[in-house]
Amino acid sequence: MSRSGSAAAKSRLRLVVVQALVFSLFATLFVRLYYLQVIGGESYQAQAADQSVRDIVVQPQRGLIVDSQGRPLVANRTSWVIAVDRTLLGKLEDRQRAELVRRVAVVVDATPEDVEARLVTCGDPGSVREVCWNGSPYQPVPVATDVRKDVALRILEQPEDYPGVLAEQQSVRSYPRPYGINLAHVLGYLSPVTEDEYDLAAERDDRSLNGASVVGRAGVEKEYDQWLRGLPGYHRVAVDSMGRVLGDDSIVESTPGDTLVTSIDAKVQSVVERQLAQRIAFQRTQLDKVTGRKFAADSGAAVVLDAKTGRVIAMASQPTYDPDVWTGGISETQLTRLYSERAGTPLLSRATQGQFAPGSTWKPFMTAGALTNGYSLDTALPCSSGFQVGNRVFKNYESGAYGSIGFAKALEVSCNTFFYRIGYDFWQRYGSDPADIDARDPLVEEAKEFGFGSRTGIDLPGEAPGRIADRQWKQAYYESQKDYYCELSEKPQTADTSDFVYKFAREFCLEGNLYRAGDAVNFSIGQGDTIVTPLQLARGYAALSNGGTLWAPTVAKAIVSPDGEVLRRIAPRKVGRVDVPKKYLDYIDGALENVSRVGTMAWKLVGFPIDDVTIRAKTGSAEVYGKQSTGWVASYSEDYVVVMMISQGGTGSGSTGEGIRAIWEALYGIEGETVRPARAAIPGTVPPARLPQFLEDGSIMPPVPDKAG
Q1: Cα 271 to the chain's mean position, in Å?
Q2: Which Pfam families does its entry note (predicted)?
């Protein structure tokens, strides 16, 4: 073959190869298109549709909190909220974005910087704690809550001026305040979920929390948060390429939270709060005989318990705060005040977290300890004006003296020196070696048996344990503070260090661990380093009333679903039994009745029908170094326990006596005041007919027929 023929053949071969390659490519493309459009078309169409929808969380309505009569203590209301869609905001030019943020800031009465700060996701650069957004990236970000309706309507009516800005109504907490009550420390408050809480919920597949949730932080709002919070719903919306909503895709309805039924009686609570506030205000106008200054009366607390079950009927603390301050977010200034010592630390519940020396209200428990450890009902000891221990004389109140008396009279007149002798006697018999931390102390044992020095187990978070200042505690405290005081004692005394502090530091460094006779006699009358909470003291007096049973105080009675179904009954819970023979409890009971009839509380109960409503009481005035006395009255009947105290308020009956009497009059309807009116439907809460009434064994009381029906 010629050279020209060979070249032509090769050219035709190359053409065939190219044609085959092109055909192969077209065939591959055709097969791929067929797969994408026919075989996998539905799958890809679904993915494309999913990219054009957004999930908007629909927050559930939080459950109600009601009192024992069905009165609403915490409910919900609607609030206009202004939110910004960050997806659309991110697609605007910088100039357009700045202008939109400026317009929003003007309409919600904020600064552009404030609005920008709220739009930053928590954890991102520039985020500000408690201001940044902690929710879903596709959720419109709230920048203002509780705005006026006309402001919301302005945004709704001018969407072209506010692209991506939403105005909608949301549910927030409200406080109906039946009878004007406050109850802030019992109810608690809410705040936004933290990032850690949200992550933990995701790990546990807990769908009740989302990035925009609020959770309970204190009180029953925290203790029963899982029941109250409900389940969020989801609103799926179709959006365009700019993130603008085109229409609804689907809706999953949210589930409202459950109702918490409490043992609180709002009417009794109103009397307790009013009396505590009035007694504090009054004492601030009175002169302290010791210092010549007016009483500081800086704080106080009152507790009313059902003596037979431990249920909390009322509980108040001063100073207090407005629970509504947390709704919609709390400002830094408001939060600072709640923690401020100068303002009295309003966030602290004095009833469950305040710890104070009990003073003479301690003496009934010391009586029980003495009678069960060798002393008899016939014991008589001198009630002298003073009792010498070493080189110090421990005195009676105002140096009074009553001769040789028994336990009943000692309680009636609140004789310190009588109990000093008992404390000193036990110290000599069992622990005269002050360095022996294992020495027995019957009075300490009795105090612990009544539950002091440990938490009561109330269904409220943050309860303080109190303190029994026994030998073990003193040794542990010495070891923790020794270095500080020894170092202080070795330094030259300066102008800002008082003689007392310098002397105390030297003595503590040398022998601060020793449990001396002075510690024992102080303990016997509720002085020294022993401290209790008002709730602990009330629980102890309830045991005196009911024959020795220690209850875990409870606020909640039941959890009820939104449609009225009882989901959980919360029955009273026994946590201990005091091993004191009945004859001794009866003896103490009679002695405390005499305190009300002829003793230190009698002058506040003149005219009270004590033969019909027998009140037992014990007054107390606890001395605190550098401060005025703390006044106590602890009282009980066969039904209730009432305790009230005022820090730096003076003597027990003098500071709180009138308040204690008024509460008892309210509890028993004396002078025409009724405590338990007929139940009626209240707007905004679960109809009372659907709220079950619980008997103390946990069973449900049958409904009472309507007389009118």
Answers
A1: 21
A2: PBP_dimer, Transpeptidase
